[in-house]
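re: the backbone from monday

yeah here it is again, tokenized this time
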């Protein structure tokens, strides 16, 4: 369907609002809008600082179109490293858990590469759970606090546990980009005083859920990676850290000893 609105005017409005990728965003808005009025409304929302993904209703992630809803954590490009490392370690028939799943983007990308995997996802936020069920199916997504959400019959059988838990220190949230701190739920951002509070809780509970030789992969930051790796080591994992300069990404990997 041909999209309404003047591309030049949309680009100019987005540039004036400080959108770095104004041309790309204008193209996406014009493709999504059914009328000029709808395009104008979308541009105004974006100019006011609302994440483009909320306006479109989806985010591009690892070559997939992931449904997102207002308030749900928007999948970042850097999390592609977590997916890449998970996909490399996912074998035929593996049981995979996407913990702190948000929209379910990580699990969705791993499952796209390994459709034979048995995938489970969980989040404490009911809005995120509703969104993840749109992406993964209601039977794969569970609501609750970390491992409490998971079906008890998979305890001790998980081969791959992928986690993009919040890791922003509480004091640093106010320094985050406006889009994130004003629009995404704080639950998906706040990692406690040092940013590693949820990492500790995940590591402490993970060994009970992982199979022998199972793997725990946690996205972290470059600065926090030594802390995350130390947490894994103390919890009984052999830990190492992988990074991607291209993605600006860091993942800590723990193998059950």
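seq for it, each position gets an aa:
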């Amino acid at each position: 369907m041909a999209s309404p609105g003047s591309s030049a005017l949309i680009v100019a409005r987005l540039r004036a609002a400080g959108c770095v990728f104004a041309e790309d965003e204008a193209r996406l808005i014009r493709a999504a809008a059914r009328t000029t009025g709808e395009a104008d409304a979308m541009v105004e929302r974006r100019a006011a600082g609302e994440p483009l993904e909320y306006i479109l209703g989806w985010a591009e992630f690892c070559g997939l179109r992931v449904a997102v809803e207002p308030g749900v954590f928007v999948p970042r490009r850097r999390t592609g490293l977590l997916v890449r490392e998970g996909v490399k370690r996912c074998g035929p028939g593996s049981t995979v858990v996407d913990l702190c799943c948000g929209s379910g983007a990580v699990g969705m990308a791993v499952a796209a590469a390994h459709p034979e995997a048995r995938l489970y996802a969980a989040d404490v936020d009911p809005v995120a759970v509703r969104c993840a069920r749109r992406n993964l199916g209601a039977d794969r997504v569970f609501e609750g606090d970390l491992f409490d959400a998971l079906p008890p019959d998979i305890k001790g059988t998980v081969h791959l546990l992928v986690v993009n838990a919040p890791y922003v220190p509480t004091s640093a949230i106010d320094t985050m980009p406006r889009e994130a701190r004003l629009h995404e739920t704080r639950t998906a951002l706040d990692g406690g005083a040092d940013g590693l509070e949820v990492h500790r809780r995940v590591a402490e509970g993970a060994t009970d859920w992982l199979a022998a030789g199972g793997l725990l992969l946690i996205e972290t930051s470059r600065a926090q990676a030594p802390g995350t790796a130390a947490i894994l080591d103390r919890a009984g994992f052999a830990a190492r850290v992988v990074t991607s300069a291209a993605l600006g990404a860091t993942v800590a990997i723990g193998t059950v000893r």
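Strands lie at 58-61, 64-67, 95-99, 118-123, 141-143, 158-163, 210-220, 237-244, 249-256. The mean pLDDT is 95.
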